Amino acid sequence: MIRVENLHRHFGGFRAVDGATLSIEKGTVTGLIGPNGAGKSTLFNVVSGALPPTSGRIVMDGEDITGLPPHALFHKGLLRTFQIAHEFSSMTCRENLMMVPGHQSGETLWNAWFGRGRIAQEEAVLLKKADEVLDFLTISHLKDERAGNLSGGQKKLLELGRTMMVDARIVFLDEVGAGVNRTLLMTIADTILRLNRERGYTFCVIEHDMDFIGRICDPVIVMAQGKKLAEGTIDDIKANGAVIEAYLGAGLRTREASA
C-alpha cells in the first residue's frame, strides 16, 4: 500500500532519515520501532506531508505521493496522529468528531446565509455518525464532555475516532501509548485491532512499549540511524542480534542468555 524508496530527510548535516526503504502492506498493523533518534517520527512527518523529503520517493497504491501536503493526503485517506493529542479542548467530544469531514456546506459564507437547510441536514448526518463512532470507541458517555477534560488515553481514543469520520485507508499512529495508563492502553490496542479486522484499516504504529507492539503488530520494522535495520515478527525481532545491540540493548541479550 505504501512504499518508501531510498528516502532521505536531512537537517543541515544531520541525516534524520538516511536512505530508508520499506513497505507497509494493505490490511496490516505494522509496528515501527527503534531507539530514540532512529528517524521514526521524521519518517512519519515526511510520509504524511508535514516535511518535504530531501530526496527519495513515496508511493501509495502505485501513485507517487512524494511531497504532497497533508490536506491532499488527507483526501486520499492517509491520516496521521501525534504523540501529544491535538484536540479542540473547548469543544465537546461529539463536536470534535463533527469537525473532521472537509467541504462542509457551513464552511462558506454564502451557505451560512442562504443554505441553512442543507447545513442542518449535513449536521444531522454528522451527528449520527459521531455518536456511532463514540459508541464503537466505548466512550459514548463522554459525548458532551469537553475534550480538554479527557485523560491522555481518552484523548488518544478520540483521535482514533477522528479517523473514523472520514474514509481513512491508512493511519500512522505516533506513540499512541504515550502518557496512557495500562487499562486504557489495552482498550486502544483492542480498538486498533477492531478497526483493522472489522473495517479494513491499515495502520503503521510507532511505539516503545514492546508488549503493546507484540499484541497488535505483524510485521514489525526496526529503524536505526535513519534506515531500516530489520523486519519480521515480534519474536524474530527479539531474537535478532543486530536489533538487540541497536535498540533493545546488550543487557537484554545477557539476561535472556542467563534465563
From TrEMBL:
Signal peptide range in chain numbering: none
Domain ABC transporter: 2-250
One cellular-component annotation, GO: plasma membrane
PROSITE patterns xref list: ABC_TRANSPORTER_1 (PS00211), ABC_TRANSPORTER_2 (PS50893)
Zinc is among the record's keywords: no
UniProt KW keywords: ATP-binding, Nucleotide-binding, Transport
Entry protein name: Branched-chain amino acid transport system ATP-binding protein
Source organism of the structure: Salipiger aestuarii
